[in-house]
Amino acid sequence: MRENRARNLAILIATILVIALPSVLGEFYLYVIRIIFIYAILAIGMNIFMGYCGQINLGVAGFFCIGAYIPAILEARLGWHYGVTFPIGVLVALLVAWLVSWPLLRLRSHSMAIGTLAFGVAIYLLFERFKDITGGTDGMVVPHLVLFGREMGYLFYYYFILAFLVAALVVEYRLVNSRIGRAFKAIRDDEDAAEAMGVDVEHYRRMGWLLNAGLAAVGGALYEQQAGFISPDTFSIAASLQILVMFCVGGPATILGPVIGSGIMVCLPYFLIAIQHYMYLVQGLILFGILRFLPSGIVGTILDSWPSAYGRGGRRSSIVPFDGNGPGAAIRL
Fold first, then answer.
1. How far apart are CA 230 and CA 225, in angstroms?
2. How far is residue 64's CA from residue 238's CA, in Å, rounded to a whole number?
3. From CA 80, how far away is CA 77, in angstroms rounded?
4. Does the pLDDT value for residue 172 go beyond 80?
């Protein structure tokens, strides 16, 4: 009961702080926080598929790209309203995810990593090549959102994106504590044993894949509107790797891990601006250090050492090397 009271108090304080931030921070800082929120949504999707379901996805930037470009094209080229283009972008991403799931989800371990990576690169090249529609490497300007005859500003986007982040956290929490979440964890721990116990492995793997794609598309639709400009470089292979680093730094199979990891990795370039040209190298070193010394991530390590049932109860979040045994052996969480 003390733990529940402490947790509820912490949630209440965090909620008040997040709601009150726009009154004390300038527009630039709120922009950075919005980017953190968006990448946290992407990392939550990665956490569901990789952290809880134990699968591999190195092509999440592909769905991020679809979710951003489909609404942007419909708005800029056809003049459609964002309220219509947003769900269309997410639905297109889900349709693509469902179609590619049939070949990709048949793969395992390293093959699945390469297959999803190839998918992300293919989507990036697709939107880069059709310059007449997407603007190519020059990018494209996205019209500002207008509601009730008034153009929305940065405060609207802050609370708008925050609402989706809170919804994603609630979905993640409810999901992992449900029958679906238990099936995910069973598949993560041992697919053969899960199937022997009556779990429809292919069905739940596809469900995790679609959730990952859907949240990535939501992040893309939020990103293109609040930024007002998009280019393919935002959705390159580096984006997938950046989201992977956020997922690992925060802590696989933890509720708040994606948010903490996103906050650290988004803010890092601003603190290390002198070596910004070597940021990919820095991210690689951070990923190596986390996998080597904190395999459970920051939040996972804290929970594993917390003297409570929640911190020690049934949570296996260490990432171990691939040993070739079992479909989920590449990343054991």
1. 9
2. 12
3. 8
4. yes
